[in-house]
Amino acid sequence: MDKIEHIGIAVKDLEASNVLFEKLLGTPHYKIEAVASEGVRTSFFQSGPNKIELLEALNEESPIAKFLEKKGEGVHHIAFSVTDIKAEIKRLQSEGFVVLNEEPKRGADNKWVAFLHPKSSNGVLVELCQEIED
Ligand code: ZN
């Protein structure tokens, strides 16, 4: 793992939360992107060297809809950037972590992503992400 790439926050209303986080961080969001395969709409903020991702559910089957129902709004996941996501998945599996998708999938903000089940990491949903280079 190289560094924390971003922190993901589940929100009910992306527009309202964009306004709130623009006030909080003192900077506007720099992109909004829907990831239909994940049932989410996201927006991104850059705060100094750090990134915040807000996630809104696109439909009721969305993992974000389920998260909001169970836990309400708040921190949803921590994402770490990695340079070789497949090697990192293998390493983590060999250490006993439960990887939710062994095959990296295309996530928001031009990244290959994979998630670890929170039950194997003290309740923290961990996302691995690797920049897609086309
Ligand atoms: Zn994320």
Structure write-up:
By secondary structure, this protein is α+β, with helices and mostly antiparallel strands. Helices cover 23% and strands 39% of the residues. The chain has three helices and eight strands. A hairpin with a 2-residue loop joins strand 3 and strand 4. The model has no long low-confidence stretch (mean pLDDT 96).
Instruction: Specify the structural class.
Output: alpha+beta
* Total beta strands: 8
Bound molecules: zinc ion
Q: How many angstroms does the end-to-end distance come to?
A: 22 Å
Q: Please report the number of helical segments.
A: 3
The average pLDDT score comes to 96
Write a concise keyword list for the protein shown above:
single chain; 134 residues; alpha+beta; eight-stranded mixed sheet; 39% strand; binds zinc ion
Topology:
Layout: E1 3-10, H1 14-25, E2 31-35, E3 40-47, E4 50-57, H2 63-71, E5 74-81, H3 85-94, E6 105-107, E7 111-116, E8 126-131
Parallel strand pairs: 1-4, 5-8
Antiparallel strand pairs: 1-5, 2-3, 3-4, 6-7, 7-8
The structure holds zinc ion (ZN).
Concise account of the structure shown:
With 134 residues, the protein is an alpha+beta fold.
